[in-house]
Amino acid sequence: MLSKTTLFFALYLLACFTGFAQDEAFNYEEAKVPPFSLPDPFVSLKGEPIETIQDWEIQRRGEIVSLFENEVYGQVPRDLDAIRFELISEDTQAMNGNAHLKEIDILVERDGDSNRLRLILFIPNALTGPAPVFLLINHRDPENIDPTRQVKTGFWPAEKIVQRGYAAATFHVNDVSDDTNETFKEDILNTLYPEQLEMGNGMRGLGAWAWGAMRAMDYFVTDAQIDARRAAVVGHSRGGKASLWTGAQDTRWAITISNESGCGGAALSRRRFGETVKRINTNFPYWFTDNFNRYNDQEDLLPVDQHLLVAAIAPRAVYVASASEDQWADPKGEFLSLRHGTRVHREIYGMEGAFPSVLPAPESPLHLPYAGHHIREGKHNLTPYDWQRFMDFADQLYRKSYE
């Protein structure tokens, strides 16, 4: 019998392909991309120029995050009454002695109710000090993050991550909000934050997943074996949308990584290439806040576009990855978003290096001091090739930061 997550993924693919057949409006030709202009990261809502770090951090960044909260992802509530970390199981000689496995339940309480999130964590035994960590927001079948390692997949190559000297951490999104329209309200929305469901700008599925990643960071800062200053949050596809929202919301992450996140993730909405705002809101109405529906077929009315989400992560590092055959996610739109968004890294924070004006060729990774990019040959997936590039970038960033 198929698991709920596997079944939903199959239905997701069916919905996409059904959309291809039934709606001829989907565009896969650059010549048909409409003219558009992007909201300027360097002009405030009051029309004032943003020229200094103080201007950015005190005024513009907060404006941008608030706009995304109100119009796209919804609020991410911070209030809770208590948070506890319970070590459920432990194996100091996991992965044939190469890793220390911890399974931790993160218990969050609010207004007399509680929710549990299971964090899986492998820490390299070869290190003598705290380990930098990669956290994967996992939306696929739980077998992809099997803590026993009886099942291993390229989606989360934990052994390779540990071998490179990084802790490998993950949680499943169903612990905070199911990835189905029928049951997404279960877990934290009904249990901890029911008032959000009554708000036009209230938290929905993707915001709940970001909330879960933030709770994992709450744990990392308490674990002496983890270097929380060198933590990266990773998401693929819809998980990549959530990882970008996590990085924009929570400044504790050193690196935010989006893999093939497409519409509502790294890709520019105004390009109307591949998946569109209307299609994603129609197929997945529980991912984004209700207010996002205002922009179905009205992308130019959005007060933001996804380059501003990248910008909101500055000065912290951001990585955007795509796949050559994943036109639904618009690799060019993802690259343009990264290039335009990281202007803040360069022009406000004075960081060196810039992305080229043309889309790089597949498997020609570009790693700047503050951002990374690659296009992998192949289809929509998260693969060992992608992970190796993410770790290459982290190696470079952390070596520079701690020299």
Automatic annotation (TrEMBL):
Residues 1-21 form the signal peptide. Pfam families: GCE_fung. Keywords: Hydrolase, Serine esterase, Signal. This is 4-O-methyl-glucuronoyl methylesterase-like domain-containing protein. The keyword Signal applies. The keyword Signal applies. Transmembrane segments: none annotated. Residues 159-345 form the 4-O-methyl-glucuronoyl methylesterase-like domain. InterPro entries: AB_hydrolase_fold, GCE-like_dom. GO terms for molecular function: carboxylic ester hydrolase activity.
